[in-house]
Amino acid sequence: MNAQCSSITSEQLEAQRWKPRDLPGHIGQIGPMWTRKEPDGWAYGLLCDAKHLNPARVMHGGVTASLLDHAISAVAWEACGRLPCLTVQLDTHFLAPVAEGQFAEVRVKVNNRSRSLMFLYGEMTVNGTLAATAQAVMKVMAAPVSHSV
User: Fold this and answer.
1) In CATH, which of 3.10.129.10, 3.40.50.300, 3.40.228.10, 3.40.50.2000 is domain 3-140?
2) CA 138 to CA 120: how far, in whole Å?
3) Is the separation of the CB atoms in 85 and 48 below 8 Å?
4) Average pLDDT over residues 90-94
5) Distance CA 133, CA 26 (A)
6) What DSSP designation does 50 have?
7) Domain ranges across the chain
8) Whole-number Cα distances in Å, 39 to 21, 34, 36, 42
9) Is the pLDDT at 93 greater than 70, yes or no?
């Protein structure tokens, strides 16, 4: 493995104040999700392992999009007083591959907000290199989402 593809361990992440989160639903299937409180908000991450790879042996685009969508949703949820937020649009750009053993980090900012919509931007980096970006439109729900059909 070359220097650009250096691996990191769970122990090293914990030493850097990252905390693993076992979450329910889809994100729990690809997790654990890692989180870290930073001075300007939360960072989210995923340690790429064999289950995240596509046939080209890099992180599958669906995993990348799921990580970005989860991080954006979490920031939107916090920014709107912990009301549920649903993804209306997620525009994802894949810029560099993520190899097995690498740690993908996502940071998100709120660009704008109306009464019922939020506009957010997220960046996914690996070892300081931009690997993917996403812009999202989130619908802020007035009440918890009903699970009945």
Assistant:
1) 3.10.129.10
2) 8
3) no
4) 98
5) 21
6) G
7) 3-140
8) 20, 17, 10, 8
9) yes
> Residue 2 — pLDDT band, cuts 50, 70, 90?
very low
Rounded-to-integer distance, Cα 12 and Cα 15, Å: 5
Spatial separation of the C-alpha atoms in residues 66 and 84, rounded to whole Å? 17
Q: What are residue 35's DSSP bridge partners?
A: 19, 44
Q: Which of 97, 148, 84 lies closest to 124, judged by CA?
A: 97
Closest CA to 48 of 62, 35, 30, 66: 30
SS3 state at 84? coil
Which residues, including other chains, have CB under 8 Å from residue 109's CB and lie 6 or more apart? 41, 75, 120, 121, 122
